[in-house]
């Protein structure tokens, strides 16, 4: 059920299922061929596909998130950290106020991972009467391993492009892809230390590997595995009575 498409009475009745998915992605360049909203679009589609198999509320996707590496090209909209944390908290508070005490923050953007780790801790520091669950972006790494033909992947790559080609081919501009294989261009070695420059320096085109190896068939296989596991996770979360109880027990606010 899509929150934005139903009446207030439908929202209230779906709250009995307890679980609401908030898909989150971003607006950022995805090389030459994928839309800027790619990650939010994927997370939203996956949430809706899972919701067809297991009753769950799905919020509109959050396009406004954390995109610091990617602003050297047009297309990115990045929220400041001190805006994003209270924004996410505010959205979760409102979802919970509507009766959903289990919220799945379904992230589709790798650049959000670090800020969501902070948000996870931030929530427990603030003391909430609801639980937020943070699944990894991919629940089917084994399938990725089986179908992958390119060694380098991670952004606008064979994997991500395959998923987009399956879910929204009309938004993919495959004819704009240049030929060639794109390896990391990082020309300094400070490992194992990391810097804020690592992503820019490695992949200034926001592109990795060779998306010519992508196909809708690969995207379908990954999506089917992802949905199967997402549904299994939602069912576990529905049954879960421990997380919120332990949060209440251990919170010191
Ligand atoms: Zn992406």
Summarize the structure.
By secondary structure, the chain is an alpha/beta fold. The chain contains nine helices and four strands. It is globular and about 50 Å long.
Write structural notes for this entry.
The protein is an alpha/beta fold. The chain has one domain (3-250): 3-Layer(aba) Sandwich (Rossmann fold), CATH 3.40.50.10310. The protein is 43% helix and 7% strand. The protein has helices at residues 8-14, 38-53, 81-97, 113-126, 141-147, 158-167, 198-202, 216-239, 242-250, and strands spanning 19-24, 57-58, 102-107, 131-133. It has a four-stranded parallel beta sheet, sandwiched between helices. Strand 3, helix 4 (113-126) and strand 4 form a beta-alpha-beta unit. Helix 2 (38-53) crosses helix 8, helix 3 (81-97) packs across helix 4 (113-126) and helix 6 (158-167) packs across helix 8. The longest helix has 24 residues, at 216-239. The chain starts with 7 loop residues before the first helix and ends with a helix. Bound molecules: zinc ion.
């Amino acid at each position: 059920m899509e929150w934005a498409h139903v009446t207030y009475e439908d929202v209230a009745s779906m709250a009995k299922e307890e679980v609401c998915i908030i898909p989150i992605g971003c607006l950022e360049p995805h090389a030459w061929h994928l839309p800027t909203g790619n990650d939010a679009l994927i997370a939203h589609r996956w949430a809706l596909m899972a919701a067809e198999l297991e009753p769950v509320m799905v919020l509109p996707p959050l396009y406004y998130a954390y995109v610091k590496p990617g602003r050297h090209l047009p297309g990115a909209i990045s929220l400041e950290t001190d805006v994003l944390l209270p924004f996410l908290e505010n959205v979760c508070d409102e979802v919970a106020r509507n009766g959903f005490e289990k919220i799945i923050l379904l992230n589709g953007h790798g650049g959000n991972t670090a800020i969501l780790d902070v948000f996870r801790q931030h929530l427990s520091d603030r003391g909430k009467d609801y639980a937020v669950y943070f699944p990894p972006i991919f629940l089917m790494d084994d399938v990725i391993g089986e179908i992958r033909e390119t060694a380098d992947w991670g952004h606008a790559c064979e994997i991500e492009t395959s998923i987009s080609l399956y879910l929204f081919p009309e938004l993919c501009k495959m004819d704009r892809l240049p030929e060639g294989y794109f390896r990391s261009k990082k020309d300094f070695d400070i490992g194992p230390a990391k810097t804020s420059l690592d992503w820019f320096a490695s992949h200034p085109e926001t592109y990795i590997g060779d998306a010519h190896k992508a196909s809708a068939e690969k995207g379908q296989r990954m999506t089917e595995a992802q949905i199967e596991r997402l549904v299994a996770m939602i069912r576990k979360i529905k049954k879960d009575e421990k997380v919120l109880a332990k949060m209440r027990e251990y919170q010191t606010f």
